[in-house]
Design brief:
Shape: globular
Helix content: 40-55%
Mean pLDDT: 88
CATH superfamily: P-loop containing nucleotide triphosphate hydrolases
Radius of gyration: 16 Å
Number of helices: 8
Structural class: alpha/beta
Number of strands: 7
Distance between the termini: 9 Å
Number of domains: 1
CATH topology: Rossmann fold
Strand content: 15-25%
Largest sheet: 5 strands, parallel
Order of helices and strands: EHEHHHEHEHHEHEE
């Protein structure tokens, strides 16, 4: 069984994933961190040296590998991971998908506080506009994969985890309740 967190960069997937995994006593896997560990390069370096296409291929391979692994886990996907239908469909079959939805203005505010380099925003003269454009393309894909959608704009990570735990208690998966 897996819980797969999806959403835009800055939507709190990694933080929520860590907290949720601790609650379940499961492992937390952050897809971007896994790729960085496997390649020895930061995501922004992969984008700069090999391009987005190469990164998406690495991302797809990692997602397919995670779909074949058996241990229970909370998986935080990168914001664009949902763009690979084959890998996303395979991973989705292993558990439940939760979309942490956030508005572009809140994403911009959170990302402004982050020290992490975001390749899709690095050259953007207007980050809010760029986030709005990216979300316009991805919103329906996120929603299409989601078993649960949570708005994260005005909520702390702890509150989001509480909401996920309440939802999990009401959902039977593979004949059992979480």
């Amino acid at each position: 069984m897996k819980i797969i967190l999806i959403g835009m960069m800055g939507s709190a997937k990694s933080t929520v994933g860590q907290l949720l995994a601790a609650e379940f006593r499961w492992v937390h896997l952050d897809l971007d961190n896994l790729i960085e560990e496997q390649t020895g390069q930061a995501i922004h370096e992969i984008f700069a040296l090999r391009g987005e296409g190469h990164f998406r291929q690495l991302e797809s391979e990692a997602m397919l590998a995670l779909s074949r692994s058996a241990p229970p886990a909370v998986i935080s996907l990168g914001g664009g991971a949902i763009l690979n239908k084959e890998a996303m469909d395979a991973l989705r079959k292993t558990g439940k998908v939760i979309y942490l939805r956030a508005s572009p203005s809140h994403l911009a505010m959170r990302l402004e506080l982050s020290t992490e380099k975001r390749p899709l925003l690095m050259d953007a003269p207007d980050q809010l506009l760029r986030l709005t454009e990216i979300l316009a393309v991805r919103r329906s894909i996120y929603e299409g994969y989601a078993d649960l959608i949570l708005d994260s704009d005005e909520k702390t990570s702890a509150i989001l985890v509480e909401e996920i735990l309440r939802w999990c208690k009401s959902v039977k998966v593979e004949g059992r309740i979480f």
